[in-house]
Specification:
The protein has 21 helices and 14 strands. By secondary structure, the protein is α/β, with parallel strands linked by helices. It has a five-stranded parallel beta sheet, sandwiched between helices. The structure holds one RNA strand.
RNA sequence: GGCUCCGUAGUUCAACGGAUAGAAUAGAAGUUUCCUAAACUUUAGAUCGGGGUUCGAUUCCCCGCGGAGCUACCA
């Protein structure tokens, strides 16, 4: 049923018989024939010209003749510059389509109890400010990756590590105490994460003012920073937090709850979630023991000042600090602690960290350390390292107020979607709740697709001056095609058209190409899982609907009078819709029945 | 300085070592008595420079040039 597999195997046999060469079928990857040539699948013959002792053209011709004679699926062939273009018997395509249409959850592999247990960490916010565009990319990648890995037959645990402690949150707390006048999310009507973010900014503002003031008294930058009473107060607050001071702790708990409520609202709107959330306040002490264990095993060493280090020079890296001279933990130690807790909770086979590429070095070190400390999955941990979202003139900078807020952006996208819908009159007559739902799905679809279609490893650019498009290579274009198909299917049902037998139909070029695309889906999902790339799914979905729109334009479905042909087209439409929906689901993007 | 990643149409993005480097946008020109024109069609436009490996290089290797990131007893 897998046509390219059939061809690969046939070619493998052909070259064995013709030239006595053993080429495993897996090594032969037939590709879709380019549009300008006749054929459906193309095999490159260069690998065999040496063994054949013939020109590429002759080699191709010989293989082609062998295939026509021995493989019923091949009806014709032509050879151009060593490329063997094969024409597949048209009725075979109906078989392929029937197979796809009859497969539930086509393209995905259901996990079993024995499937690998994979944990994916993403989002990982600080609690002192709301989520921004960079988090959006992270979260969407993490969520999509989780979906894809699950579709590839893995058991997936989605997790999040919240950085809820440290000097940053103390700054917000201090500012709230000093100038907050008891403000709460309820009293201000602000989302909790935004409220806390505002106090963080407020702290910074007062701190800067204090520094400026001190410098007018003739202090240097460094002296002023040392003399700052605000910063001293923040540090004092952190000390009290670490000692478990109940006053500080309860303020901390209250403000963190506000932030979490805010984050949850953002996650919910994005349509993402987690199976298990870890908090650094609960994990940051955990790593210490593990490090001391490593010290005993001789994996780490202690310096004269009491600090503990790992020597990674044998692995081409540097010495890495793990415990300060006062015995406290650093970031790396916390990550070791978190790893330890996680492994206690879940016997994971693989850990994937969705974290920006600025931390490449950190994860290189973490992998080595976990391995040295005896974590079976340490060496094989995956740092899913994605690129930054940049603005036209560089990085987002909170100091310059150029940070693009996640909630604001989502809201703007939804309202843009609504405006486009209204202008086009697409939602006229729909109940308001439904219209709002369409705008929500389409607006967020545009945003998600925009962020996911790019190769995750690469930096990408977002221009806040230009709104994200709804035409062309976009989420809404894909959603639109889906809605269009659903509309046709509704009308078909009204007209009483069933999808009947279509084996007798001879598909045209357009239809064949579309079936071929549909047939590609499972391998695209696998490849996306293997290479950790939601972008492959996004590009596939786009190619598929582009192909469908051309088919739709050229071939009438409801107007087709031949029942077999009409059935073929209806089946093609329904299967395309299902596949589009599945692919978008892997990206965390929803579909609508009309738009 | 060292290490890592990246350089493709005006712009934003594609291209398991394969044919004449694809799309989308912006530009030009079209398609609606016909299943949703958020669509379809036509047109013009690009691989940073120099070597090497290969039948074949945007892709792999080396040297430049340009950009980003890391190189904290911050997280």
């Amino acid at each position: 049923m897998q046509i390219d597999l059939i061809i690969a195997q046939a070619v493998s046999r052909a070259v064995k018989e013709l030239y006595g060469v053993d080429t495993p079928a897996e090594k032969i990857v037939p590709q879709a024939t380019r549009k300008e040539f006749e054929g459906n699948l193309t095999v490159v013959t260069f690998p065999w010209v040496k063994a054949a002792r013939k020109s590429p053209e002759q080699t191709g011709t010989e293989i082609g003749e062998w295939l026509v004679k021995n493989e019923p699926a091949v009806s014709r062939f032509n050879v151009i510059k060593g490329f063997l273009n094969l024409v597949i018997e048209p009725t075979y395509w109906c078989e392929v389509l029937r197979h796809i249409a009859g497969t539930t959850d086509y393209g995905t592999v259901a996990p079993t109890d024995r499937s690998p247990l994979v944990m994916v960490e993403y989002s990982s916010p600080n609690t002192n400010k709301p989520l921004h565009l960079g988090h959006l990319r992270n979260i969407l990648l993490g969520h999509s990756l989780s979906q894809i890995l699950a579709a590839c037959g893995n058991r997936v645990v989605k997790t999040n590590i919240v950085n809820d402690r440290g000097i940053h949150i103390c700054k917000s707390m201090l500012a709230w105490q000093k100038w907050g006048e008891g403000a709460t999310p309820e009293s201000t009507g602000k989302k909790g994460d935004h409220l806390i973010g505002d106090f963080y900014v407020l702290f910074d503002k007062h701190y800067k003012a204090e520094l400026a003031q001190l410098k007018t008294q003739g202090m240097s930058d460094e002296e002023a920073e040392k003399a700052s009473t605000l910063m001293a107060e923040a540090r004092e607050m952190l000390r009290r937090w670490e000692q478990g001071d109940e006053q500080v702790r309860s303020l901390w708990r209250m403000m963190n709850e506000w932030v979490y409520a805010g984050f949850d609202a953002t996650y919910e709107r994005m349509g993402v979630g987690f199976d298990k959330i870890y908090y650094e306040s609960q994990t940051y002490l955990e790593g210490k023991e593990k490090v001391l264990e490593g010290l005993e095993k001789g994996v780490m060493y202690r310096r004269e000042d009491g600090s503990v280090w790992a020597d990674l020079t044998a692995d081409g890296l540097d010495h890495k600090l793990l415990l300060r001279s006062d015995g406290t933990s650093v970031y790396m130690t916390q990550d070791i602690g978190t790893a330890r807790l996680r492994y206690q909770d879940y016997p994971i086979d693989k850990m994937i960290y969705v974290v920006g590429n600025e931390q490449n070095y950190h994860f290189q070190v973490l992998s080595l350390l976990l391995d040295k400390l005896g974590f079976s999955w340490g060496k094989g941990l995956v740092h899913f390292s994605y690129g930054m979202v940049e603005l036209p003139n560089g990085k987002m900078k909170s100091r310059e107020g150029t940070v693009v807020d996640a909630d604001d952006l989502m809201e703007a996208m939804v309202s843009d979607a609504r405006q486009v819908s209204d202008e086009l009159g697409k939602l006229d007559g729909l109940p308001e709740a439904e219209a709002a739902n369409v705008a929500e799905t389409v607006g967020l679809g545009a945003l998600k697709y925009f962020l996911l279609k790019v190769d995750p490893r690469k930096n990408m650019t977002f221009n806040p001056e230009e709104s994200i498009d709804f035409n062309g290579n976009t989420g809404p274009f894909i959603q639109y095609t889906y809605a269009r198909i659903r509309s046709v299917l509704r009308k078909a049902a009204e007209a009483g058209f069933q999808i009947g037998e279509y084996a007798a139909a001879v598909p045209c070029e357009r239809e064949i190409t579309l079936i071929q695309r549909l047939a590609d889906y499972p391998s695209v999902v696998q490849e996306a899982g293997r290479s950790y790339s939601p972008a492959l799914i996004a590009n596939y979905a786009y190619d598929l609907v582009k192909e469908y729109n051309q088919f739709y334009h050229d071939c009438s479905i409801l107007g087709e009078t031949d029942p077999a042909k009409r059935s073929l087209r209806l089946a093609l439409s329904e299967t395309t819709a299902n596949t589009v929906k599945s692919a978008l689901n892997l990206l965390g993007i929803g579909v609508v029945e009309r738009m």
